[in-house]
Amino acid sequence: MKTRLGILGGAFNPPHFGHLRPALEAMDQLALEAVFFLPSGGHPLKEAERLAPVAHRVAMTRLAIQGQSGFELCELDASRAGISYTVETLQVLTERFPLGDLFFLMGSDLLAEMHLWKQWQAIIQLAHVCPMVRPGHEAALLDTVAMDYLNRFRVESPRRLDRERLGHFGFCLLPVTTLGISSTHIRQRLTRGEPIRYLTPDAVVAYIQQHNLYGNHDQT
Residue 136: phi, psi to the nearest 5? Predict the structure, then answer.
C-alpha cells in the first residue's frame, strides 16, 4: 500500500501551537498517514547563535507532538553534521520510502525565500509542495519567484495530489486556521519575563523553565 507522508521541517525554536494546528489540518486535508516533524540541525538561513542547542529543540519537539496520533519525530536533520538542505533531506526520505508519496509542508511565508534554497526547483521532483496559507494571505504570494515556477504544477484540490494519478508531483496551497503565534514572539516574551502558557503545550513550557532556555521565564 502506498504511504502518504507529510514532512514538516523547521527550527522549532521552540515548537508551538502555530506549528501543531496547521500540521493537523494538513494531515486531514491531504489524507496523510503521518506527519514527520524534522527539527533542523545547521540552518543555512538562520544565525546559529539565535538557535537553542539542537538537543533541546529535538526534546521540545518530542514533547510538543506526544499524544497526537500520526505525529512523529524524525531526527534526520538534527543528527546530520553541518548544514541541512531540504533537497538533500527529501532525497534521503525518498530512498527510505520508495513507494510513498511525500508531501513537503511549509509555511507560506517561506515561498518568498524558497528561490534562495539549494537546488530549490528539484524539490518538486521529490515531493508534493504544500504551503500552508492563512486566510487572506494568498495575494501576497503571487509575485514570488518560487510561486511563479511552482504554479505550472498546481492543482486546486489537496486530494488530487497523487503522483500516480498526476504522473508527477504537484503543488497545492492549503488553507489553515490563523494562529498569531511565532517562535520569535515566544522568545521575546520569555526575555521580558512574560507568560507563554497556551502558546505552546504545557510540557514545552515546563521544559523551557527546567532548562532555563531563552532568558527570564519566571512567569511561564
Answer: 90, -5
d(CA 190, CA 183): 11
Question: Residue 160 region, left (φ>0) first, then alpha (ψ -120 to 50), else beta?
Answer: alpha
**How many C-beta neighbours within 10 Å does residue 44 have?**
13
Strands 71-73 and 101-107: unpaired
Contact 128, 172 (CB under 8 A): yes
Q: What is the CATH number of the domain that holds 80?
A: 3.40.50.620
Which grid cell is 220?
511561564
pTM: 0.92
| Ramachandran bin of 214, using left for φ above 0, alpha for ψ from -120 to 50, beta for the remaining angles | left
57 membership: H or E segment, kind and range: helix 54-65
- Tell me the per-residue pLDDT of 90-145, one tens digit each, with 9 for 90 and over: 999 999 998 889 999 999 888 989 999 999 999 999 999 999 997 766 656 667 89
| pLDDT for the residue 114 | 94
pLDDT of 51: 87
Residue 149, domain extent: 4-179
Asked if the structure places residue 97 within a domain, the reply is: yes
